[in-house]
Each structure stands twice: as C-alpha cells, then as structure tokens.
Amino acid sequence: MVICCAAVNCSNRQGKGEKRAVSFHRFPLKDSKRLIQWLKAVQRDNWTPTKYSFLCSEHFTKDSFSKRLEDQHRLLKPTAVPSIFHLTEKKRGAGGHGRTRRKDASKATGGVRGHSTAATGRGAGWSPSSSGNPMAKPESRRLKRAALQGEAAPRAAREAASQEQAQQALERTPGDGRATTVAGSQGKAEVSAADAGKESPTSSVEGAVADKSGISVEDFTPPGSGACKFIGSLHSYSFSSKHARERPSVPREPIDRKRPKRDVEPSCSGSSLGPDKGLAQSPPGSSLTATPQKPSQSPSAPPADVTPKPATEAVQSQHSDASPMSINEVILSASGACKLIDSLHSYCFSSRQNKSQVCCLREQVEKKNGELKSLRQRVSRSDSQVRKLQEKLDELRRVSVPCPSGLLSPSREPPKMNPVVEPLSWMLGTWLSDPPGAGTYPTLQPFQYLEEVHISHVGQPMLNFSFNSFHPDTRKPMHRECGFIRLKPDTNKVAFVSAQNTGVVEVEEGEVNGQELCIASHSIARISFAKEPHVEQITRKFRLNSEGKLEQTVSMATTTQPMTQHLHVTYKKVTP
Ligand code: HEM
C-alpha cells in the first residue's frame, strides 16, 4: 500500500522525493478529542479517516516534532495538531497541472506564531467582503479574541498598518484566507479550522453557512450525522442563552483592566462569535469588543471607511452604546458551554467509531458461532463413537471375565483349582469357534455356526461349561447347553452332565486320556413336547490339537437316523 497524505491539495506520498524528507503520521483515531482537532484542520468534506490515513509532516510546524535524528523518522509529539494547509489549488498556467501553491499561512501573517500581530491585523483589515466569507469566520474570531486577550489595544492601533498587510496576505489566499495561525496572550498558537472548499469564494461571501458556533458542521461531520448537527446547534444556543442570561450582571468595564489575559479556548475559539452575530462584521477596531446581540450595528459599516481605532477605545464605545457585557465576558461565559459541547462532538465521533467496532465484533461473533456449531457437531459425532466403544468394551469384559459373580472372589483372585479336575485343566478357558463350526446330518442341509465356549472352575472338583452357538450371519442365538464335567477321584473316568435349550438333558460318560476326552451318552431325557425326531444316542470327542486349539466332534443317532456326525468345530482360546 502506498502511503499518501490525506490533506487537501497535498500530493505527497511515500517514496516520492528525497527519502525521509517527508514523514507520514497516522490520524489519532483513539484520541477522539485530538482527532477532531485534526479533522478540523484538515477540512475534508464527507471524509472519515481510517487507520490507513496519514498526514505528511509538511502540515505540522517544526515544534510539533520532538526529535529528528539523521537516521530516524520524525517523531510527532503526542499533542501535535496539524496547522499548515493549502486548501485551494492554483494552477500555474493555462492547462497546467501545477502543484498546489504551498503557502504557509503563518508565514503569510508574518510567520509569527503566538503574536497578536496577525490577529490584530485581521481585525484591522476586516471588511464585509471578508467577513461574509464563512471560511474566514472562525479565523476572524480567533484573531479578534487573541487580540482582545493577548495584546493591548493601543498596540493594535500602532500596528494597524502592518496588520493590514497581514490581512491582505491572508486574503491573498484565494477565496478564503483560511490557513493561518492565531495566538493568545501566552504565546500559544492555534490553527484555524475553517471550512474548506465547499463554496467558491464569491458565493461564500453571501452564503455564509457556518453555524453560530463558528464550527461549520460540515467541518468534520459526515453527511447525515444528525447528532453532530444538533450538537453544533447547541453552540449557538449556549452562546446566546449564556449571553442573555449573564448580560445584566456583567459590569460594564473594559476587559483589559479587570480581566486577566487568557488563552484562546482551544476547542471553541472563534466558535462563539460569528459575522452573523455582529462581531465579525464590526469595524476593525470594534472587532475587539463587539456585542454579539447587536447585529444591527455592524453589517452595514463600510470597511473602506473604517479607520482602525485603539482597541480600548472601541471597547468603551461599544459597551457604553450597546451592551453592558464585554466580549471577554461573552467568551468566558460561553467557553464552558462550548467545552461541554465540544466534548459531545467527541462523543459523537467516538460513538461512530464504536458503531463500526460493533459491526466488526458482530462479524466476529457470527464467525465464532459458525465455528462453535461445527465443533458441536464434531463433539456429537465423538460422543456416539465413545458410546459404541463403551458398548464394545462392556461386551469384551463380559466375555473375558470367567467368573462374573463377585461373590466368589471379592479379592478378584482366581479360585485355586481343585486337583481332582487337574486332568481336564487343558479344557479350561474361553474359546471361540475358529473357523466357524460345520453342521451336517443326513436329513439336513450342511450349515455353519459360530460358537462361544466357557469352561471354568470355582475351586470345586468339577468344571463348569457353557456352549452357545450363533447364526454366522445374523448372530442370532441357536443351540445352547450348559452343565458340569466331573472326574471320578483318582481315576480318568469323566461324567458330562448337560442341559440343552432344545429340552434335552443328558449324561455322557467316558475317559480322559492326556488332552483328549471321549464320552458317550449314558442317559437322555427330554421334555414331553420336544421336537421330533428325538435324539437317542450322542457321542462327543474333545481334544487339544497340536496348534493349541480345542476341537469338538458330535455325532448322534435319532429315531430316524443311525449314528452320524452332526457337528465339527475348532476353537481358539481367547483367554490365557
Ligand atoms: C449335542 C448337541 C445336539 C444335539 C443332541 C442335537 C440334536 C439335533 C436333532 C435331533 C436334530 C433333528 C435332526 C433331524 O431333523 O433329522 C437337530 C437338528 C438341527 N441341529 Fe442339532 N443337536 C445338537 C447340537 C447342535 C448344535 C450345537 C447346533 C448348532 C447350531 C445344531 C444345529 C442344528 C440344526 C440347524 C438343525 C436343523 C434344524 C432344526 O431341526 O432345528 N445342533 N439337532
């Protein structure tokens, strides 16, 4: 981004010309009071500065900078306010596009800041043509006030000639004589912030548009800012009402005798008095003491005929003729109100800033809300995943705990195996069919099934078992049986007692040899309504194969079929 100077008719931009010859300074956006001073000085219509707006160093007096080292940019003082502007453009020739004539108003008025020469000169050179110019109004008022407060009136008279020159110099600034400096008695300079470029010089003479406050509303208020207009009108009200109220009580005396010198009000200087109030249109000498409430006295006074008079004289004559209140009284009484009103302007401006900040924040909040929504969706997905994992975990716990009853081993230590069942210890554990079991029978289509087997003990001289089969695809429970395996102590004789969900109970007996158990049905019973064909004989063989897998083979004879293999399944151990 190229940094450009925001001042009217200033074409300075970064990189142009000698490096470091011109520095650029941001508008004090966070200091609303000072910002208003800047905006008044810049005098751009319908324009609001942003953080990318700059003024170049050419619009500041030298004493606005605290230091300027060889290798450093200028450092602007925190209280600095721009004062040097060239608000009208003058072309150098026909069709020329010449650079704006840079005319430092302070030079035009003798280059003296903090002296009343310019001010009194302004007063001396006052004329209807100049007073009618709205651009010049605040200027004139400041000048007058400065003269009133800062210098003795006789001096004004003495310097009338030079003042006139200064005035002429001011008015050489095409159409307005805007940029200039004004000084108070304590040598403080103040920069006029009269309106800029709104009207042509001639039209502005008659069409003075600055309000009574002396601050043209358009000076720093974007169009449509009703609040600022309203506040601007308060200036007028404060002035006139104050004046009207205090007027009777103010003693009639020249101000320079009784009143201490005071500075021009920084924010309201020139604001209280305008040409339309009589002061600015008064003859030059009387500009020091004009009575705002008596407009009839001044407007018709032909400037060419006016002979500058000593200010004190003027003061006395004005007071005795028209008003018991001196101009200083007026200024003093109005200044407090003006300060207050100016602070309202600050509020106005900062509230506009706040509005844009609110918009910004609103966008951020909307963005964050969007992020929050997507985060909530992710959390919801995660929650459902956690739930599924929890279910799986619960299932695994059910499978892996051989003895779900906490009554048996509160200490969670496994019960010590009874030595009687030790020959069958190879059968202990939880087993899962792997691969799926294979079902056959002459009367049946071959089928597959899954089976989970638990064989455990609780310290008793027997094993507990359960066989639970499931459909391989649907996982629907199928055949189930459970029971006990007993060993005849000190023998390898084994009794296998089983109850089946088909309504069959049976006892099989046989022998255990090594890691193989062969048993055959000893007795079979069933419920009365058991499904036919009924099983009449059953044989089983368990063995632990060389791979450490458990195998079971079941054969049976029914009322319709001889002994034939019905099942074969291999299990892998899933617990230690
Ligand atoms: C020792 C245990 C078992 C006995 C005594 C037994 C007995 C029988 C009998 C008597 C039949 C009728 C056969 C026919 O209709 O001709 C039958 C059928 C069947 N058995 Fe078994 N069975 C046993 C274990 C199993 C197991 C573990 C499964 C595995 C899922 C199974 C699955 C079947 C199927 C699918 C049929 C055919 C449909 C049916 O009748 O329900 N059987 N079984």
Word description of this protein:
The chain is α+β, with helices and mostly antiparallel strands and 576 residues long. Among the domains are: 1-85, no CATH class; 419-575, Lipocalin (Beta Barrel), CATH 2.40.128.20. It contains twelve helices and 17 strands. The protein has helices at 32-42, 105-108, 117-124, 128-131, 137-150, 153-158, 160-172, 201-206, 226-246, 255-258, 311-321, 327-400, and strands at 24-26, 54-56, 65-67, 75-76, 181-183, 189-191, 429-433, 437-441, 444-456, 462-470, 477-487, 493-500, 504-513, 516-526, 535-544, 550-558, 564-573. Strands 7, 8, 9, 10, 11, 12, 13, 14, 15, 16 and 17 form an eleven-stranded antiparallel β-sheet that branches. It has a two-stranded antiparallel sheet with strand order 1-2. The chain has a two-stranded antiparallel ribbon with strand order 3-4. The chain is rod-shaped, with a radius of gyration of 53 Å. Residues 90-225 and 238-324 have low confidence and may be disordered. The structure holds protoporphyrin IX containing FE.
How many helices does DSSP assign? 12
- Give the class from helix and strand content and strand pairing: alpha+beta
- Profile the largest sheet: 11 strands, antiparallel
DSSP strand tally: 17
Q: In the CATH scheme, what's the topology name of the domain at 419-575?
A: Lipocalin
N-to-C series of helices and strands:
EHEEEHHHHHHEEHHHHHEEEEEEEEEEE
Shape: rod-shaped
CATH superfamily of the domain at 419-575: Calycin beta-barrel core domain
For the record, the CATH class of the domain at 419-575 is Mainly Beta
As a percent range, the share of strand residues is 15-25%
Overall mean pLDDT score? 68
Radius of gyration: 53 Å
Distance between the termini: 73 Å
Which small-molecule ligands are present, each listed once? protoporphyrin IX containing FE
Uncertain residue segments: 90-225, 238-324
> Percentage of helical residues?
25-40%
CATH architecture identity of the domain at 419-575: Beta Barrel
Organism: Sapajus apella (Brown-capped capuchin)
Biased composition (Basic and acidic residues): 246-265
Biased composition (Low complexity): 151-172, 289-299
InterPro entries: Calycin, Nitrobindin, THAP4-like_heme-bd, THAP_Znf, THAP_Znf_sf
